[in-house]
Amino acid sequence: MMLQQAPSISVCRSKAYQTILHSYTRRRCFSSSHRRAREEQMYSANMRVAAYMCSALIGALGATYASVPLYKIFCQATGFGGTTKRVDLDDLDHAIANSDQTIENTSKKRTKMDRFFNKLYSMSNVPGLQKNNRGHANTWTDEEAAQKLAQLKPHPNGRLIRVRFDATVGDVMPWSFTPTQRDVRVVPGETSLAFFTAKNNSDKPMTGVATYNVFPAQAGVYFNKIQCFCFEEQRLLPGEEVDMPVFFFIDPEYVDDAALANCNNVVLSYTFFPTDWDDDEDDEDDDE
């Protein structure tokens, strides 16, 4: 009887190598598949992050452009941070006609803006205020104050309130911006007019916008503007100088506010910021 011959050493080694190679190949295929899956997940996650960042950037740009009008609407509606309330006015001429002060006659040859500014000058209670030949700023008027102004009367027990004016410009804005008077004194319920002067000291046309605030903040609730240049774009040519009016009154209810019983001084401050720089070519195109 013949004994079964044992497998040779070389055959055993060959089988062992095949087993190892097969196992290695399976592990390598599994590793490659797993790596591709992870790469796809990372790519998908990166795309989502990029989409979120782009959306945030677009939203930030939109908020930047909308910030001024939104801030304007919010502050005028709430008086937040001492921001003055904006008084509506349907017909400024009607309001002026109801004031006790006279309005000088103007020539028919004068422009509508000149006539308007002459009326404002004639209404001013600022001592020594003089008309000048400077340009005029863009201003706004609103729609509901004619009737209120017609019925507005100084508070019978009102005290004199000193309204001081402050004017500044942004650090990168080459304008000079000053009030033409340091302060005025008014009784709550009495209208008053003040002027600010702005000049472009650069060699290029430039556009700016002014924001405003009132201190103390509580007084801003009673500080009503009828005519103002704030939040309106002011475009000045090189060396151009303009007058900017602020026609306002303090509500008679100011006197009845216990929190303001000892407050006889109010500060109205403006700050001008640049909105864009115009080059000479754009200016020439506008002139054409």
What does this molecule look like?
The chain has five helices and twelve strands. The protein is of the alpha+beta class and 288 residues long. It has two domains: 11-69; 79-287, Sandwich (Ctag/Cox11 (Pfam 04442)), CATH 2.60.370.10. It has helices spanning 9-78, 92-97, 112-123, 146-151, 280-287; strands at residues 85-86, 135-136, 140-141, 161-169, 175-179, 183-186, 191-200, 206-215, 223-228, 234-236, 241-250, 265-277. Strands 1, 2, 3, 5, 7, 9 and 11 form a seven-stranded mixed sheet that branches. It has a five-stranded mixed sheet with strand order 6-4-12-8-10, with no helix packed on it. It is 35% helix and 26% strand. The N and C termini lie far apart (122 Å). Mean pLDDT is 72; it is low at 99-110, 123-133 and 280-288.
Taking all Cα atoms into account, the compactness measure Rg is: 36 Å
Tell me the series of helices and strands, N- to C-terminal: HEHHEEHEEEEEEEEEH
Helix content class: 25-40%
What is the CATH fold-level name of the largest domain? Answer: Ctag/Cox11 (Pfam 04442)
The coarse overall form would be elongated
- CATH level 1 class label of the largest domain: Mainly Beta
Function: Exerts its effect at some terminal stage of cytochrome c oxidase synthesis, probably by being involved in the insertion of the copper B into subunit I.
GO molecular function: copper ion binding
Subcellular location: Mitochondrion inner membrane
Keywords: Membrane, Transmembrane, Transmembrane helix
